[in-house]
Amino acid sequence: MLEWNTYMQELGTRIAEIGRASPDILRGYRTLSDAGQKTANLDAKTRELIALAVAVTLRCDGCITTHTTAALKNQASAEEIVEALGVAISVNAGAALVYSARVLDAVHETTEPKQANPA
Fold first, then answer.
1. Are residues 86 and 28 part of one domain?
2. In a domain, 34, yes or no
3. Maximal C-alpha separation, the chain
4. pTM for the model
């Protein structure tokens, strides 16, 4: 397992390096990141719980460490975090099921004789 606090510090160092090399990249990212917070339709804790579910789906360790810290700062409990992760798990399983159906569709199309369209 990662040492998450150390990883977050190292990640911050590398992101700062990117920012020094190309400030517009970080400015653009920050604009996207801040845009969702301006609507105030979701509270900060809910946004962070959603972000954690997405982070798991994307398999992004940087997102996990950043949004875990933010979720906890916004009073998310361990139980709420686990519930959000359960949503990610079920959606990912559902997506695998849907794409499994696509595989079978490809199998059928590949193995079944094509029928001519009557004119």
1. no
2. yes
3. 68
4. 0.81
